[in-house]
Amino acid sequence: MKNKRQFVIAILFFISGAVGLAYEVVWVRQLSLLLGVSIYAVSAVLVAFMGGLGIGAEMFGRKLDRGMSPVRLYALLEIGLGVYVLLFPRIYTLLEKVYLFAHGGVEGATFYVITLRFVLAVTALIIPTILMGGTLPSIVRYFAISSDKGRYGGLAGALYAVNTLGAMTGCVLAGFALIEALGLTGTMQVGAAINILAGVAAWLIAGEKSWTVSRPDNLEKTSGDKEPEPDSNASLYILYGISGFCALALEVLWTRLLILLLNNTTYAFSLILSVFLLGIGFGSAFVSAGPTRTRERGVGLFAMFQIGVGVMAIASLAGMAINRSIIDALNHSIDAGGAIAQSLPGGESMVSALMFSLFVVTPCTFLMGAAFPMVMDAVSSGKEKVGGEVGRLYAMNITGCVAGSVVAGYMLIPAFGIQNSIIAVAWVSVLSGLWLVVTRAREMGRAGMILAFAVCVPMTISFAIKSDIVYVLSAQKLDEGSVIEFYEEGPSATVLISRQETDLSAGRKPVKRLWINGDHIAGAFREALQLERLQAHIPLLLHKNPKTALVICFGTGSTAGAALTHELDSVTAVDISREVFDAGHGFAEGNLDVMNSPNLRIVEEDGRNYLLTTKNKFDFITSEPPPPSNAGIVSLYTKEYYQICKTRLNKGGIISQWIPLHHLSDEDIRSLVASFMSVFPKAAMWYTKWDAMMIGAEDEIPVDLERIKKEMEKPGVLSSLDGIGITDEFQIVATYMMGPKQISEYIDGIEPLTDDKPRVEFTAPRVHTRGVVIKGENLNKILEHRAMPPVVNASEEDIAKLKKYFESEGVFYRAQVELNDGNKRAAAKLFRKALQVNPDNQDARYAYIMLNLQAMYASLDGGRADLGLEMLDATEKLDTRGSFRPQFKFLRGMFLANAGNMVEAGVELSAAVKLDENYFMAIVNLAGLYGTQLGQPEKAKQLYNKALKLTTSQYERQALIEALNRLAL
Questions:
Q1: What is the pLDDT of residues 771-817, one digit of tens each?
Q2: Do residues 12 and 194 lie in contact, with contact meaning Cβ atoms separated by under 8 Å?
Q3: φ and ψ at 376, to 5 degrees?
Q4: Residues 127 and 60 sit within 8 Å (Cβ to Cβ)
């Protein structure tokens, strides 16, 4: 910088970059509330945003070429942007009215709806983004006027770096602090004030005396440089557009990939975007600091960088493939830097993920940023046209960016998957660079050609014949012994179903879980099914005459399946991902084969947007979204969301909402409850072992014991409830937690969560590392306010019985807290007490059996068979339903074998295998007994071969083969 005036202008430009990115973050959030968070809606907003930037760059670049004063233009752009932002809330209100009128209740993402969203996004953002797009060419033109250079790539690149690093700063501030502290409106108001002040300051500091600047007749040229041919410049503009295509396509693809390593929080997305911008900013700054280049050298370096981007993009997959080793090394390296880890949401894992992102993504984005000054050097013809050239170049790059984001999300991922899409985009970058080498930079390009083919071809072949990296990353999060039954990559989500054999479930039923983008969302095992089914059963048992239901967030489909057992006319299920519905077929047992029910209607759409636009009304609405710590989910927990739900309920309609106790602080949970109560003040809280459930309506809902009993006599309802251990109406009613009075005391002093201030999305990730450990603390706070439900149509005998059930269930909840906190002895004591109060408490019975099972399996190698058999006898008496017979037979056989009673052990193990022919541990141990103790090698061989046909790990398979080889000797 030659003087203080230029330095201050550069600082203002840095700030405007920060404010612009903060606006992007806020506008995407705000318009998503209106248009939805589906990939189609978000893409419409991003395309409108980026398209406006491109138009503004080209349009105002032309004005600068005609001699318009650059800083006066910049000042007007900043002031105009600030004024528009202040008016945006009124504009948003008007757009909402237009959207609801024009939408007409069309279901799903039809071409009409997608077009409508795009038109409204453009209407909302075209003016401010055009204004923003004109700032870069304006500032470059201002600095070029006082420059003696003939090539302006370095100057333009330096200012591009200033603005990009400002954008990175804005991303960090908005994503980590401003929105949480000020809300969406407050953040925009601060930004608008900064824009206006920056515009006024720039106008005064620059001191331009007129609206035009002088234009000398002869444009400056670098010695020995020829004026570029128009056709050659056109090809460079197109190639820079391709560069933008690759950049945004890779950003979309990397985000989907990296989110599998990070916790799926708002901070994760902010971190990824910040790392992306950091690389681009530093790349442009680094190259701009170098010497002035000739046109030919600029073209050659641009070609090399294009090839380099492709090479590094493919290499990033190799980094992903060895991510565990890298992250483990990073974890060790940051142990001493605990202060850094504590300063970021997510702790050490977030720091490791940040370092890993820098390691994998930054080299590629560095080259992307470095390309801008190179191309600018190649197309620049002098200071008088530099504004237009920067604007044109920026516009072409933005056009490519728009195409890249759309093509990657809508076409490449569904067609080829994320890994192959990265490879395809990488080759687009490589081939565009090679084309430039062949046509314009042969002397410089030989090394690039060798690098491209020597690295990219072998790596492409290697990844083509090996496992998919995305599949591998998804599998890394699964519990040991899990296998993947379903896997699908879609435009907005990577969905899989895991299946895990376990001895710790009734009847040894495998544990099946649904994973979305690396997060465990739902499952089909007793604890999960209890929540998912009761989410429908309790409200529908309370409703007087339900006919229609709406399920927001389909999950495994178990809630929808449970709802249909109440003989409803229809259940409408809404989910944002088609892949989730496809996965529903894999949970047929848990969801009662709901996917084949003629009364189920599925709608692929953002749930909130469906509620906002549909003309339908329902007797029952239930919502079971992921926890609000997940990015983009908080809008399904706010006051405004429940207000929309209320407008879609029929008279007498009921709504239920899942409130998780994990990954949230006590204050977070109370804020979620306060949001629900602000719209349904007569609501009640119910409970399902580890999760709260808010149930509300216009009026207080009576707990009609007689009606509940009658409804439970329906065969489908009875069977569904029996599957989760509930056999009578008293067990249902005992899950009641508190009514309106108690809830008011519980949430006293807590503000509801709102769309404008979605603070839980920011506070929840800070306790994310505590995961399920925090549940005990949260449940204890809730239990302080627990009260008996006000029941109707109940005799004195019923009331007495209910009190016994209610007391027992309270003891069970306290036992759960002790168990969660690791106090197993205290938990066992309380489980016994709960059963003493009410022997029919199936929750306490099941949990106590599970606790004893874990203890017995852990003691198999302890050498105290007598104690093990004693515990086993007591535990078998608890299992009145015979749910754990295979495990008991196996354990008895193992304890007998430890005691030296081999023949009896063989009988018990044989019984376990007969009860469960896929019982791997029973088969293997029985084979070992036959082969080493009972002298029956042929039976042992048969059993080992039987075990080899089961799903096994590589280690287990090798051990079986070795055992067979020993028998053969």
A1: 677 889 999 999 999 999 999 999 999 999 999 999 999 999 999 99
A2: no
A3: -65, -40
A4: no
